[in-house]
């Protein structure tokens, strides 16, 4: 049997392909993004980015209704958006196998919260499988399609950042189940969720879960690994691997299906050991279920946030912990910054000058909140900037309020906020940062750019026409790299008595591949005013005398600093290949 070194996300994609999935659909979000991108590389599967996770889940429901197998992918916060169809799909059940892959982010490496998607399985009454490594990710994803069709339920497969992005040796089946759509059968009692039908399906849902609960007790997804009788550990997902490394002598009940929970297996395990502890990430989900099964759990001081590591497991049990690497003293902090040449930089420079309250959103431009720009005042969730701008303007009378949102995020969930503003007579300002891509998650296409997951060009969303159709009366597009033009348009927008939408358009610096020659600072002309420093460009810093200097090795010659320098101190440095280090 062939083997390959795959990440967890790659393994999920492979498992879906081997299971004969016909369609993959999702919304990019770290740590889940690469799953659909890898699935798209296989023959015989149609893969698409949706505008948001709710649409993805609903497209998948249509595929399943018509009898095809479908994989839906998203990160944990995306499951909030997809929850509406998910809860009802538990009632309807499926046609073709329906698997939703969700990747949680303990430690918030790239997320605004640390929610625990295991609780969605419990609340929505759907099964959840939780792989601990890439090998299990492939196996469980493939199995999930069979479970979905056997028990007439959508199935959640949950990963975490550690599982999604770590590599492991995976055995490849080598084959693929031929995608065969189940014949469509008209069945309104199953699929039309008016109250009369929903009540019957609600009762049937409990019958389906009862059958699946029997499966969870005996199928091997949940298994006992006996090593000793003194200590028994119940662990799921990535926490299981930490336990195996930290406590090689302990017996372990590995939970691979967290819902329905294997109560009988837990009681059997507890009877074979002297004491039981639970090791898990993000709070007491498994611990509570173990307790509900009638098993007494020894409480250990595990943190309810962040990732579980072998060191945290040992510390929680009072065992000695080897000292890890110690960072050298005095190293400077390296906060994330917008890239040199980023078109968002000039927009936030302009926003700062308007002294506006700026409600922000999810994307690279969230970095506009960081010094020295410090021009964003909130960031809550996808699309929130528009609604929050409207709400803030209802009570703020002294300062303008501006909502800032990226092109992909606007298509995701910002449009409805703009409709609300117009419908209720709002006269605020919304800035759409159109950098022609979904940059933060790796330059995926979106409805605004018109680039599909396959790389082909679909239809681009016309932002100006859409804004006017939603009810905005003042609509304008500016070149985001023209700082003074952007500032003038922004001042006009916030002064407008009508609802205003300003589209700041310029491609991501990493897409534009700027080949302009870098610039340098003429030390004799520089007055050390700091205007260029305030742009927050990583190529610009101060000398010991306080004057600016530019590192030509990373300068892309975008011209933003030249536009803000009032003294002409920024001059051409010549071709980058002729210079090394920095120039002054």
How is the topology of this model organized?
Elements: E1 3-7, H1 8-18, E2 23-26, H2 33-39, E3 46-49, H3 53-65, E4 70-75, H4 76-92, E5 98-104, H5 118-124, E6 128-129, H6 134-151, E7 155-160, H7 161-165, E8 167-171, H8 188-191, H9 195-218, E9 223-225, E10 231-236, H10 237-246, E11 251-255, E12 257-259, H11 263-271, E13 275-279, H12 285-292, H13 310-316, H14 343-354, E14 357-359, H15 384-395, E15 401-406, H16 407-423, E16 429-434, H17 463-470, E17 474-479, H18 483-495, E18 500-505, H19 509-512, E19 519-521, E20 540-542, E21 548-550, H20 560-564, E22 570-572
Parallel strand pairs: 2-3, 2-4, 4-5, 5-7, 6-7, 10-11, 10-13, 14-15, 15-16, 16-18, 17-18
Antiparallel strand pairs: 1-8, 6-12, 9-11, 19-22, 20-21
Highlighted features:
584 residues, alpha/beta, Rossmann fold, 7-stranded mixed β-sheet, 5-stranded parallel β-sheet, 22 strands
Beta-strand fraction estimate = 15-25%
Total count of domains? 4
Query: CATH topology of the largest domain, what is it called?
Result: Rossmann fold
Structural class estimated from helices and strands? alpha/beta
Strand line-up of the largest beta sheet: 3-2-4-5-7-6-12
Q: Could you say what the CATH architecture of the largest domain is?
A: 3-Layer(aba) Sandwich
Number of helices: 20
Low-confidence stretches: 577-584
Largest sheet: 7 strands, mixed
Q: For this structure, what is the CATH homologous superfamily of the largest domain? A: Thiamin diphosphate (ThDP)-binding fold, Pyr/PP domains
Kindly state the mean pLDDT as a whole number?
94
């Amino acid at each position: 049997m062939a083997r390959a070194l795959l990440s967890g996300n790659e393994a999920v994609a492979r498992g879906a392909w081997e299971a004969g999935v016909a369609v993959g659909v999702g919304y990019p979000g770290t740590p889940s993004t690469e799953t659909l991108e890898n699935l798209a590389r296989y023959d015989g599967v149609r893969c698409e980015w949706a505008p948001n996770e709710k649409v993805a889940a609903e497209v998948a429901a249509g595929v399943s209704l018509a009898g095809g197998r479908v994989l839906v992918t998203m990160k944990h916060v995306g499951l909030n958006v997809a929850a509406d169809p998910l809860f009802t799909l538990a009632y309807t059940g499926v046609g073709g196998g329906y698997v939703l892959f969700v990747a949680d982010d303990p430690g918030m490496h790239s997320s605004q919260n640390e929610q625990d998607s295991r609780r969605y399985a419990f609340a929505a009454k759907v099964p959840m499988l939780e792989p601990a490594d890439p090998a299990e990710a492939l196996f469980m994803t493939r199995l999930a399609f069979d479970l979905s069709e056997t028990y007439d339920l959508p199935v959640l497969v949950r990963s975490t950042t550690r599982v999604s992005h770590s590599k492991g040796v995976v055995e490849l089946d080598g084959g693929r189940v031929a995608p065969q759509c189940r014949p469509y059968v008209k069945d309104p009692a199953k699929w039309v969720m008016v109250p009369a039908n929903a009540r019957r399906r609600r009762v049937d849902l409990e019958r389906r879960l009862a059958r699946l609960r029997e499966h969870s007790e005996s199928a091997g997804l949940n298994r006992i690994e006996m090593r000793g009788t003194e200590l028994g550990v119940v662990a799921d997902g990535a926490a299981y691997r930490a336990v195996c490394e930290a406590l090689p002598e302990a017996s372990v009940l590995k939970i691979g299906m967290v819902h329905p929970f294997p109560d009988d297996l837990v009681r059997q395990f507890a009877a074979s050991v002297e004491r039981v502890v639970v090791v898990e990430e993000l709070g007491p989900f498994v611990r509570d279920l173990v307790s509900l099964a009638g098993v007494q759990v020894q409480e250990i001081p595990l943190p309810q946030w962040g990732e579980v590591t072998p060191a945290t497991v040992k510390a929680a049990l009072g065992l000695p912990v080897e000292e890890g690497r110690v960072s050298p003293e005095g190293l400077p902090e390296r906060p994330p910054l917008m890239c040199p040449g980023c078109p968002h930089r000039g927009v936030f420079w302009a926003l700062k000058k308007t002294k506006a309250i700026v409600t922000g959103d999810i994307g690279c431009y969230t970095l506009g909140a960081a010094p020295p720009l410090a021009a964003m005042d909130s960031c809550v969730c996808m699309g929130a900037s528009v609604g929050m701008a409207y709400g803030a303007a209802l009570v703020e009378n002294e300062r303008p309020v501006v909502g800032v949102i990226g092109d992909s995020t606007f298509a995701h969930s910002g449009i409805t906020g703009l409709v609300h503003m117009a419908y209720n007579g709002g006269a605020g300002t919304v800035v759409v940062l159109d950098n022609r891509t979904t940059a933060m998650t790796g330059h995926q296409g979106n409805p605004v750019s018109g680039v599909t997951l396959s790389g082909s060009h679909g239809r681009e969303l016309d932002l100006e026409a859409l804004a006017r159709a939603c009810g905005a009366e003042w609509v304008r597009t500016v070149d985001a790299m023209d700082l003074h033009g952007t500032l003038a348009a922004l001042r006009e927008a916030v002064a407008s008595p009508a609802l205003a939408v300003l589209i700041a358009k310029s491609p991501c610096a990493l897409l534009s591949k700027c080949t302009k020659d870098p610039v340098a600072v003429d030390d004799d002309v520089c007055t050390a005013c700091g205007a260029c420093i305030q742009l927050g460009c990583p190529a610009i810093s101060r000398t010991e005398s306080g004057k600016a200097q530019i590192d030509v090795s990373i300068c892309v010659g975008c011209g933003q600093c030249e536009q803000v320098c009032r003294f002409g101190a920024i001059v051409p440095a010549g071709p980058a290949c002729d210079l090394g280090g920095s120039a002054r």
